[in-house]
Design goal:
- By secondary structure, the chain is mostly helical.
- It has seven helices and four strands.
- It has helices at 5-31, 36-60, 64-92, 98-117, 151-175, 178-203, 213-256, and strands at residues 124-135, 138-147, 262-263, 269-271.
- The strands form two sheets. A two-stranded antiparallel sheet has the order 1-2.
- α3 packs parallel to α5.
- The chain is elongated, with a radius of gyration of 25 Å.
- The termini are far apart.
């Protein structure tokens, strides 16, 4: 397996970056149980690490059976990533049609069940042979097989996911969360569509290349983590500004040497 070194290193780095993100967001959630978005990102990141591991197993597979098994198990972390992404968008953008979210989750769950019903998996009726191609300067395995039409269920669910994201972004936009939604949703949108296009090209036998969906998911995670750290930064800034203005008011009040009082709208004294 000497020739696989680079591929192994790159995919292991993707997986470890994801697991690091997963651990960080899990810790945040454990400290603040109400922030479900952190838990969802943690789950999504862990799922992406699983996808990366599955892709690596497929590229290293020596027989059609090995490839088919690796691919079959890849659907499990894939399900985790897509379901947590749907829930994350609902939580974070506070928008997105509920029936559409349920449709995506149901279709994804159906394709997961079908994937374990069919042999070898949802994407192939049978894998005839393993071909070796050059990828990133190294030899990797790809499958030559008969496509399984049922994978349309999975691919349609990803198409609906893209529509769900656009819809959620527009709904949040109408509400006035401009910058946050636009940057984040267009980034997520781009990577979701890219992964769908790659899956269609590879599994319907149009293009010969290994699956690299974990890279697209890592892009989604990076954009999301960046966006959320900006949120934290903004709230810290707000808190600081508030403290400063309170301190300034106190200084003015105490340096005037006059009598100062404050009443609320009912005329009740609240400060003297």
């Amino acid at each position: 397996h000497h020739s696989m070194s680079w591929i192994t290193i790159i995919w292991s780095m993707v997986a470890s970056a994801c697991l690091t993100l997963a651990a960080m967001h899990l810790l945040v959630w454990l400290k603040k149980r109400a922030s479900w978005t952190n838990l969802l990102i943690s789950v999504m990141a862990a799922g992406t690490a699983g996808v990366a591991f599955g892709e690596l197993s497929m590229m290293l597979a020596q027989t059609p059976a090995e490839f088919g098994t690796a691919m079959r198990w890849l659907h499990l972390p894939l399900w985790v990533v897509i379901v947590s992404l749907v829930l994350f968008i609902r939580q974070y953008l506070r928008s997105g049609r509920v029936w559409l979210a349920w449709t995506i989750v149901s279709m994804r769950t159906l394709s997961l069940v079908l994937n374990f019903v069919f042999t070898p998996n949802l994407n192939y009726r049978e894998i005839i042979s393993i071909n070796h191609i050059r990828f990133l300067g190294e030899s990797v395995s790809i499958a030559k097989g008969v496509p399984n039409t049922w994978m349309l269920v999975a691919q349609l669910s990803v198409l609906l996911l893209a529509i769900f994201i656009i819809d959620a972004a527009f709904a949040a936009r109408r509400r006035g969360d401009l910058r946050k939604t636009f940057v984040l949703s267009s980034t997520i949108m781009f990577f979701v569509v890219a992964s769908l296009v790659q899956a269609i090209l590879v599994f319907w036998g149009i293009v010969s290349m290994p699956i690299t969906i974990s890279f697209f998911f890592l892009g989604i995670l990076a954009a999301t983590a960046y966006e959320m750290s900006l949120d934290v930064y903004r709230s810290v800034q707000l808190a600081e500004n508030l403290r400063e203005s309170e301190a300034r008011l106190r200084d003015i009040t105490f340096s005037m040497g006059d009598w100062v009082w404050e009443v609320d709208e009912k005329g009740v004294y609240t400060f003297s």
